[in-house]
Each structure stands twice: as C-alpha cells, then as structure tokens.
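Interim report, section 4.2 (structural modelling).
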Amino acid sequence: MAEHVAPAAGARSGIWSWITTTDHKRIGILYGVTAFVFFLIGGLEALLIRLQLASSQNDLVSAETFNQLFTMHGTTMVFLAVMPLSAAFFNYIVPLQIGARDVAFPRLNAFSYWVFLFGGLFLNASFIAGPILGADSLSVAPDAGWFGYANLTSRAYSPGFNVDFWVLGLQVLGIASLAAGFNFIVTIVNLRAPGMRLMRLPVFTWMTLVTQFLVVTAFPVITIGLVFLMFDRFFGTNFYQVSAGGDLLLWQHLFWLFGHPEVYILILPPMGIVSEVLPTFSRKPLFGYAVVVYSGLLIGVMGWGVWSHHMFSVGLGPIPDSVFAGTTMLIAIPTGVKIFNWLATMWGGQLRFTTAMLFALGFIAMFVIGGLSGVMHASPPADLQQTDTYFVVAHIHYVLFGGAIQGIFAGIYYWWPKMTGRLMNERLGKTHFWLGFVGMNLAFFPMHFIGLLGMPRRIYTYGPELGLDSLNLVSTIGALLIGVSILVFAANAWWSLRHGETAGNDPWGAPSLEWTISSPPPAYNFSVIPEVVSRLPRWSRTQMRAIPDVPPEPVHVPGGSFWPVIAALGIGVLATGALLHTLWVVLAGAAVLVVAIYAWAFEPFEV
Amino acid sequence: MTHAHVTSTGLDSRKLAFWTFIGSECLLFGSLISTYLVYKGRSVRGPTPHEILNIPVTSVSTFDLLMSSLAMVLALAAVARGDRVWARVWLAATAFLGLVFLGFQAYEFTSFVHEGLTITTNLFGSTFFTLTGFHGGHVAVGVVWLLTLLVRSFQGKLGPDKALNVEIAGLYWHFVDVVWIVIFTVVYLLQ
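Predicted structure of the assembly:
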C-alpha cells in the first residue's frame, strides 16, 4: 500500500481511485458534490411544498405526500445538505489551513463519507421503495416531521415503513458524523504545523473544532433517543408508550438536547467561513480575532443550555421556562459580538465586492434578521403565539438559508479556485447572489406575517377565508427565484470548470496557509511542512520560509484503501436488514462490517 | 515517513481520538442512565426492581469485572516490559473475567425472563434491559478485542513497540468498567 512518490504524485485517476481514496481533498470533493445533489433534492421538495401552498385549497399533492415532503425537506437539508457541505470544507480546507498533509485518520475519513452516502441513499430510497416493501404506494418516505415527535412516530400512529426509514437512516448518518468528529478534533489538535499555535489557527479551523466537539457530544444523545424509538417500534418496548407510564417529553428532551447543539453545528462553520472571507476582501485582519474565537467557544458551550426553548409550549412550568428564556437571550450576546467584529473588520478596509464577499455580507444581514426573530421567541409568552406557525419557519430559514447556506456559498466562491485551480465567473456569481438574495427575502419574509396571522406550519392546505393567498403566492415566487439562482450557480460551476481563468496560488491576496501552495494542491499538499511564524502568514512582515514547488525529498502519500467503503457497505446492509426485519440480512451486514474492520486494522497503511 | 511521534501535543493521535471517543460514550451512557432514573418508579405494573434484582449475585459479577481491570493493568505492564508469557496470561485472564461477567448477565437476564420481566413488560424492563444490554454489548466488544490482542501475542506480533495498542484497549476496558460501577450503584444499590 505504501509507496514513495515524487512530485507527480496524485496522478491517480479512474473511478476505483475515487472509491478507495483516502486523500482529504478528494473526500472533500466527494462530500461537496454528494451534498450538493442532496441539496438539489431537498430544494425540489421545498419547491413542491411551495407550489402546493401557492394558493388556498390547492390539490397539487395529497396530504400524505405533503407530510413526506416537509419531513424529507427538513431532514435532507439538515443532515444531507448543510452538515455535509460544511464537511466538504472541513475535509478540503482544514488540513491545508493547519499545514498538514492529511487528516489524522485518512481511512476513517473515507469511512465517514461512505457511511454518509449510504445513509443518504437509504433515506431517499424510501421515495421509491413502496412496491418492493409491499406498500400500496410508491413512496414510503418519512412523514412525521424532521423532529419526529413521539408518539406520532409510534407503531400505532405510524404503522408503515416511513418512520423506520427515518429512525434507521438517522442512526447511520450519526455514525458518519461521529467518526468525522473524532477525526477532525484529533487532526486540529494534533496535526498542526510547527508554530501553528492554537491562537494562530484560522477562525474557520477554530469553528470546525468547536463544531466537532458539539458533534461528538450531541450525536450520542439523539442516537439513544432513536434507539428507544427503534426498540419501541421493533421490539415493543415502552419508552414512548403513554399507556405504560412513558413520558412523551423524554423524546422531546433527548431530541432537543441534540437538536439545539445541532443548530450550532449547522451555523458555526459558516460563521468560520465568513470570518475568513471578510478580512480577505476588506484587506484587513479580522477585528478582535481572539474575541471572535472565544465567542465561538462560548456559543458552543452555551448551546448546551438552551434546548428547552423548543418546548415552551408543552408546559414545563415557570421556573424552567424562565431559565431557558434567560439562557436563550444570553446566547445572543456572543453571537452579537461576532456580528460587531465582522462589521468592525470592514470598517476602513479596502472593500472588494466579489461574489464571495457579497455572500458573506448577505450572511450577516440575513443572520441578523433570523437572530432577532430568534430572540423574539426566546420569550415564552411570545413563543406561545409563534410556535408551530410560519413565523418559526421564517426564523429557521433566515438563519439556515440566509445564514448557513449563504455562508456556505461564500465559502464555495472563496475556495473554488483553490479546489479546482480555476476562477468562477463573477458576473454569473453576482447574478446567483442577487437572484437568491431577492428570492429568499420574497420567500421567507412574508412567512413572518403568514405565521403571525395564524397559519400553522405543516398543513397541506388552507382556506381562502384566512386571506393568506397573496402572501403565500409571493413566498412561492420567491422560492422559485431561489431555484433559478441555484441553476445559475450550477451553470457557473460548469462554465468555470471548462473555461474558467487559471487561478494561480492566491487569486484573492488572502492571508492564510492554504494560499501558499498551488491550486489545486498536490496530493501531499505541502512539499515541505511549513513553519508558521505568525497568525496571518501571507500578510505578516516576518515572512515564513517559502514552500518550494518541488519537494526537496520524496514525500510519502498513503495509497488508498477499499476497506472503508466495504465497512460502510456493511452498515448499509445492516440497516436494510433491520428495515426488513430479516435477521440473516442483519447478520450478513454485521459480518461484512466485522471482516472490513479486521482487514482495515491489519492492513499496512502508513499515514 | 511516519509522523506518529511528532504530533503538536506530543500525544499519540490514536490515544487522543480514543479519549474523545470515551467522552462521546459518556454522553451515550449518560442518556441511558438518565432515562433509567427519569422512569424509575413509573412502571404501571410489576415486577419492580426490588422484587427482582439480586444484589448479592450482581455484587459477585461486579467484583469480577473490577478484577478484570486489575488484570488489564497487569497485561499492559507485561506487554510494555516485553514479558510475553505474562502478557498472554493477563490478557487471557482479562478476557476470561469479561466472559464470566457476560455469563452472569446472561444468567440474570434469563432468570428475569422466567420471573416475568422482559423488555416489553413495563418501563422498568425496557430501561433496565436496554441500559444493561448496551453495557453488556460494550463488554462483549471488549472481550473480542482482548482475544484479538491475545492472538496477536501468540503470533509474536505484540512486542513492547505495540504497547500502545494494549493501552488503548485498556482505556476502553477501564471505561466500560467504570460505567458498570455507575450502573451498579444507580440500578442496584439506590433502589
């Protein structure tokens, strides 16, 4: 497996080289492309939802289909789009930013990707698996909402395969996230180049580190919640059985104990991206670097103390409601600190309004709106009015689309030249930004009013007497505009790969380490391990030693392994067996997994 | 080239990863144990814990598991000093004590089922079997891991240079042991 390669390393090609790859850059690309496809699927689901709601008493889709659409839209966007799109950047960028040649465990990294892929395929297979499973409809997609409240998810109220797909798919995806979490914590803590002290880490890497700590602590909690649900459904246990004395709030607590840290898992990486993009295009170091880092840490810690604000309407009592209202309002402080630091970064800078910069600015503006409505429902009395209405839908889309997705697009436009070696088209990029920006505000801003005027979320249609037809139509038009903007992005990506201008090492004049090497970087990243002497290596007066184009001595590059994909396949088979309640399939999957783990452990593989 | 020795912290990456994993496992068992505590005394029908739990028998298995941790320490020491014979003895002893613990658990589970407590009977059954079952599953994985190390030792591939492999297995084993101490206290002693 091990081989010594000279500069031309990385000339491996063909599909097999991608399946067996352990190169963090290739895995990053796999994550990005796969997650973008899932993003398109989740987007199509959103468009169907919006078309159904464009007018009152519409019958484009049935109520059953509508339930599946909003459940899969939420599940897909959270677990299959935003998280893995961030993971694409963790993979591609973090090792470059810390001056490493790969992650700490390259094969575990490949394993994470393949488990994610199989988990995503497993979940989406539910759209067409009906006939195979003997159901009377084509689609048996999950239909109990993305937070799957008990006891709607119990066998009694959800007898079909729909919730089984959900409960198993999320457990599989959890494995992928956990494995990646351990990997990136160790990578960032342990694989930093000499001189790359913690307080010299780029903010994106810092936010990745905080995010991974949230992943490894939050995912076990949802795993247990899902295990209880699975046992209830498969083996008849009583965890969420009210008749046996079970408490439905147990699910809500376990889910939101995970779910609120998950919110920060979704938003901290884009905050990190924005903290990279703004200084570069303001030609100024980030204002208050240390404070931004500490705010991120504080958000991560405080993110664990606010989960019950999702449950104000269940009647926890005045004391818990007050405490969680207080912690929720407090967490706005470190978030606000970041916003002001970003604004101060731009103050007096030489601003360049590239597409990446526009998306970063869009992030700030839209995230502030989402943050303000968030503080509004931090107050329990206000929340009682807003909960389960479109007001909350407006809020989450301002923070997750206006925030997370725009932040991710900022990252795509910023690092695309590094990943592909080519620049994107700025004109198309700006078209993408403005169409999306107008579209999202048309789509989501009216939802505030739709919600305050009394329209509940998750209903498949509404009566004309509510007087919400025109607002809903505006929202639908906005959603279609977003769809068009994504097509413009796809065209831009395609154009750039074919005709884009060559980027060179550093098209932006950016400060951090990833811009010191060629675009795309060679398989070994750095021909010599850099010695970092300052926080902004390319902007500082004390220049670091240049990285030669040709390695002075041969660099070892791990040769790839197919055991990660086999192990992931075993997990996929295992989940399928559990879905079918067929023991031999479960055992076969487990056997494949065990064999793959042993082969992996004893395979000669020098990092 | 191997950079396993030149990490930023000086800690081996695998060991650091394993500590992170243990941190994550704490939340896993924390969720299970919290659920057990939340549901304690809320079963609408029996059998209840004090009708059925056998503290003397479980005290023996708890002692057995504690002793396995001692054997694990001795196994690591033997591997680290290159003592092949004692390495095998203590690795085998650790695995054996783990198997004995699993035997006790199998006996306990079957006797409970005979006395009318299954995972579906009531909330106590659901939480008890899930919690202790998860722990037992962890012990079983540990036993397989230890037996693998034992085989490696017989193959002559577990010299002092591989002590870290044993140390990480030991971290896992001690963690599983500590979790049992918590479970034993919460489930058996604090009724």
